[in-house]
Automatic annotation (TrEMBL):
<dbReference type="InterPro" id="IPR001806">
    <property type="entry name" value="Small_GTPase"/>
</dbReference>
<comment type="similarity">
    <text>Belongs to the small GTPase superfamily. Rab family.</text>
</comment>
<dbReference type="GO" id="GO:0015031">
    <property type="term" value="P:protein transport"/>
</dbReference>
<dbReference type="GO" id="GO:0003924">
    <property type="term" value="F:GTPase activity"/>
</dbReference>
<protein>
    <recommendedName>
        <fullName>Ras-related protein RABA1f</fullName>
    </recommendedName>
</protein>
<keyword id="KW-0653">Protein transport</keyword>
<dbReference type="GO" id="GO:0012505">
    <property type="term" value="C:endomembrane system"/>
</dbReference>
<keyword id="KW-0342">GTP-binding</keyword>
<dbReference type="InterPro" id="IPR005225">
    <property type="entry name" value="Small_GTP-bd"/>
</dbReference>
<dbReference type="GO" id="GO:0005525">
    <property type="term" value="F:GTP binding"/>
</dbReference>
<keyword id="KW-0449">Lipoprotein</keyword>
<dbReference type="Pfam" id="PF00071">
    <property type="entry name" value="Ras"/>
</dbReference>
<keyword id="KW-0813">Transport</keyword>
<keyword id="KW-0636">Prenylation</keyword>
<dbReference type="InterPro" id="IPR027417">
    <property type="entry name" value="P-loop_NTPase"/>
</dbReference>
<keyword id="KW-0472">Membrane</keyword>
<keyword id="KW-0547">Nucleotide-binding</keyword>
C-alpha cells in the first residue's frame, strides 16, 4: 500500500526519470502521483524539474525522486546529467498521437545508452481516457513492451487511472532488484549501516539506502 511520508523518513532513495515526447502528459503524471493534482492548462516543461514522494514497499519506506524534462530536441544537451543515477524510468507516449508511439524506440535507445542495464522501465500509454481519439492500440503497445522486455501500463493523469499503479510497480521492482544485488554481495539490506549505498547500476550516484537508528546522532 502506498502512503505519503515526511521528506526525511525513508529507507531507500531511488531516482526515476520521465521521458517521452513533449505534450504526452509527463508533468501531469508527476503531479498526479506526487501531489494528486492535475492541470488542464499545464504548460510544456522548460529545462528540468523534479518532485518526490515516498511509498511503502514490503516493510520499507521507499522514496522516489522523480525527474521530468521537456521532450524537445533543444534540451538534449542535458541528457547525461538527467539520466545519471537513474534506476527507473517511465517512457511515456500519448495514445491519441501515433507519432509519439513511433518515437519511443529513439527514447528507449537514448535511455539504455545512458543508464545501466538493470534499470527498470515502465512503458506508459497516457491519456487513455480519450477513448474516441485513440490512435495506438493496446495490443500494439503490449507487443512493443514484450519485445523490449519492459513493463507496460495505460494511464490517465486526468482521471487518475493507473498512475499510482505505474509508479508503485516501478519502485517495487527497483526495490527487489536492489535487494537481490545486496544479497548477491553478501549484505543484508535490513542491516545496512547508515549511509551505505547499494549500487543498482554502475552510474548510480543518487539512489541508495538510508538507515537511521532510533538513537542516531
Amino acid at each position: 500500500m502506498a502512503a505519503y511520508r515526511a521528506d526525511d523518513d525513508y529507507d531507500y532513495l531511488f531516482k526515476v526519470v520521465l521521458i517521452g515526447d513533449s505534450g504526452v502528459g509527463k508533468s501531469n503524471l508527476l503531479s498526479r502521483f506526487t501531489r494528486n493534482e492535475f492541470s488542464l492548462e499545464s504548460k510544456s516543461t522548460i529545462g528540468v524539474e523534479f518532485a518526490t514522494r515516498s511509498i511503502h514497499v514490503d516493510d520499507k519506506i521507499v522514496k522516489a525522486q522523480i525527474w521530468d524534462t521537456a521532450g524537445q530536441e533543444r534540451y538534449r544537451a542535458i541528457t547525461s546529467a538527467y539520466y545519471r543515477g537513474a534506476v527507473g524510468a517511465l517512457l511515456v507516449y500519448d495514445v491519441t498521437r501515433h507519432v509519439t508511439f513511433e518515437n519511443v524506440e529513439r527514447w528507449l535507445k537514448e535511455l539504455r545508452d545512458h543508464t545501466d542495464s538493470n534499470i527498470v522501465i515502465m512503458f506508459v500509454g497516457n491519456k487513455a481516457d480519450l477513448r474516441h481519439l485513440r490512435a495506438v492500440s493496446t495490443e500494439d503497445a503490449k507487443a512493443f513492451a514484450e519485445r523490449e522486455n519492459t513493463f507496460f501500463m495505460e494511464t490517465s493523469a486526468l482521471e487518475a487511472i493507473n498512475v499510482e499503479n505505474a509508479f508503485t510497480q516501478v519502485l517495487s521492482q527497483i526495490y527487489r532488484v536492489s535487494s537481490r544485488k545486496a544479497l548477491d554481495l553478501g549484505d543484508d539490506p535490513a542491516a545496512l549501516p547508515r549511509g551505505q549505498t547499494i549500487n543498482v547500476g554502475s552510474k548510480d550516484d543518487v539512489s541508495g539506502v538510508k538507515k537511521v537508528g532510533c538513537c542516531s546522532n
